[in-house]
Amino acid sequence: QVQLVESGGGLVQAGGSLRLSCATSGGTFSTYGMGWFRQAPGTDRECVAAINWSGGIRFYPGSVRGRFTISRDNAKNTVYLQMNSLKPEDSAVYYCAADRDSNKWSSVPGIADMDYWGKGTLVTVSS
User: Fold this and answer.
1) How far apart, in whole angstroms, are the C-alpha atoms of residue 47 and residue 108?
2) How open is the CA angle 113-5-11, to the nearest 5 degrees?
3) Is 6 helix (H, G, I), strand (E, B) or coil?
4) pLDDT tens digits, one per residue of 36-56
């Protein structure tokens, strides 16, 4: 059974930084594409960063490109999301997700692409 556990969320002032981590277990992490999604109250869940199984391909939507960086450490079965220059509109619950077949990605993956999900970590950016 694949488990994903996010950590690193919290309260930060606008302009600040946070680093989220997602530790995985129970699967073959090095073969999974990994994504970070977020969902604010009343909005749809959206992908903010994705990295393919090898780490060689990354996708970001325009809203976070240049501010967020996704990375992975296959030796630690962990994926990270470095978030800089945070804005109040970045406030949301952030979820880690895994896709068993990231070779199909041609752009930012959607919710339906992902096979496994964590329970989320809350990020609040104050103005």
Assistant:
1) 7
2) 105
3) strand
4) 999 999 999 999 999 999 999
